[in-house]
Amino acid sequence: MSDDGQSAITIIAMLGSVFSPYYAKARSRGAADPLMHCAMNVALYGARADRWALTERPRGAVSRSRRSLAIGPSLMEWSGGELRVSFDEITAPLPSRLSGTVRLRPSAPGPAADGAHDSVALDGRGLHRWTPIAPIARAEVELAHPALRFSGSAYLDTNAGDEPLDHAFERWTWSRALGSDGIALTYDVRRRDGTRMLLSPAFDAAGGARELPPLAPRPLGDTRWGMAREIAADPGSAPRLLRTLEDTPFYARSLAAATFGGKPATVVHEALSLDRFASPWVQLLLPFRMRRAR
């Protein structure tokens, strides 16, 4: 997110794209190779226009090592204490070029690229894991297409799983509240077995971490697709929606203002419904937001 709040970018490297209808179809026939369904998802949000790129690529377009990952023409690589992401993708559904470079530098010292961060099991069997690698970071964004430069706060994490998400979860919400003295994360997970997991870790710029008492969710308002949005915030406060970044039948990404720990915070919020995602009508819509390279 840019310091002036006008631009933002999200980049997700997917090995075995969890939202690929082609991967889901392959799994329905038996064991499927996740590396046949990989993508570098790039979403750009700005005052002039938003752009979305998601191209699924096969195993032959993927190259990875301990410190780098290449998917087609796009690359993530740790170098000199920072994560450098270069990408050159085509948007969907309307084709246009989306290319540039992002440099992310963790604010706290430490081996962010060396796996020295604890993973949290999101399900009861340890098949789904979340790792906040660089909860507080800075990013420098330089785009060639469209021509745009900005810098601002950033965040880096990873999720890994050994089964499809909809097998273990009904839905979840995730949020990152950025304040003047650090960030507070919230992970509210509703599992298929009827249990719930609520995580509320907080991090400061020096790398310190602590678990906060969970806050009751406050309503943020439904999306146009009817996705319910609830956000963790102080009791009695009224979170305010600033912008809906993504509005789909099963997923919403939003920007909000809220009070957290008695202090104002800018919140990036995500809501995911795996029940909706698994429904046949949503599966039919997915190819309209993605491309597929042969």
TrEMBL record:
SUPFAM superfamilies in the record: AttH-like (SSF159245)
- What's this protein's name? Hydroxyneurosporene dehydrogenase
Encoding gene (name): crtC
